[in-house]
Recover the amino acids of this structure.
């Protein structure tokens, strides 16, 4: 089982797909999402495009280390620490620079890597994420900005699957049909792999610890970037993608009318083309640019 320990003492599980000669691409998922949330078929398309795909479980989810017990919901880390986990993964793999793509909270994390460790980033992919947690970029209920202190209810397998499918249905792309059966299969895989709902709460509390604002620094990130967002994202407004595009000088912005806060199968081929194109631009740029 591929696993290593970061300098901060966090055990991180990860998986790789593709040839060692491929361009390294790290996929960082969102809050509470395990690495298997990146569909195997999507990963296969990326491998076919020439990438060596690396998928870590973020700390507190999946098979990576839990940082607290079931009733211990306080976060002892922040987004910068999670970015450090990605850098430690690159060190473990012996990768000097990688293409980084993040979804939702994962987008916060890879932005932070680019800000604090620019020499390690060849290109960025930002999917359904934001350069800031300012209210103008938020949609729906996001709480009062205070840490969550109530332990989540523990569900049996069937109840968890029902809850998971309902959550995915609420965030699905409205322009495409929702596959409830596929969602249920993923939910079962999540539950059987590991069921620790307290990890999601600690991740949420870690996000609240910040940094929540990156707009004042993103102009210094000059690597090629692909910004992908849905016009009907149910959590983060598409204006966040426009704002990020205005800040990142090497970016291209793609707003999809049909897309919500997910990575819909119907758009995978286009997403892969976009990520491959910005990776090609990175290879044409001078090292360190």
């Amino acid at each position: 089982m591929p696993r290593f320990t970061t300098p901060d003492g966090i055990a991180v599980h990860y998986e790789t797909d593709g040839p060692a000669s491929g361009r390294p691409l790290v996929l960082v998922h969102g809050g509470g999402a395990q690495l298997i949330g990146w569909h195997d078929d999507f990963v296969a398309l990326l491998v076919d495009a020439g990438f060596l795909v690396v998928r870590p479980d973020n700390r507190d989810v999946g098979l990576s280390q839990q940082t607290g017990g079931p009733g211990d919901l306080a976060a002892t880390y922040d987004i910068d620490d999670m970015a450090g986990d990605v850098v430690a993964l690159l060190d473990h793999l012996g990768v000097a620079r990688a293409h980084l793509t993040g979804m939702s909270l994962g987008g916060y994390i890879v932005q932070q890597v680019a800000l604090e460790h620019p020499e390690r980033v060849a290109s960025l992919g930002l999917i359904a994420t934001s350069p800031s947690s300012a209210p103008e970029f938020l949609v729906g209920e996001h709480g009062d900005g205070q840490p969550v202190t109530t332990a989540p209810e523990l569900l049996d397998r069937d109840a968890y699957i029902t809850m998971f499918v309902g959550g995915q249905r609420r965030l699905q792309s409205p322009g495409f049909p929702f596959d409830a059966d596929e969602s249920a299969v993923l939910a079962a895989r999540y539950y059987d792999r590991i069921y620790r709902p307290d990890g999601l709460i600690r991740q949420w509390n870690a996000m609240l610890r910040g940094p929540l604002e990156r707009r004042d620094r993103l102009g210094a990130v000059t690597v090629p970037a692909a910004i992908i967002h849905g016009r009907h994202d149910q959590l983060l407004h598409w204006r966040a993608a426009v704002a990020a595009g205005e800040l990142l000088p090497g970016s291209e912005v793609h707003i999809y009318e049909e897309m919500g806060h997910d990575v819909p199968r119907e758009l995978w081929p286009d997403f892969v083309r976009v990520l491959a194109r910005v990776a090609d631009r990175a290879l044409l740029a001078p090292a360190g640019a």
About this structure: Residues 3-284 form a domain with the Rossmann fold fold (CATH 3.40.50.1820). The mean pLDDT is 96.
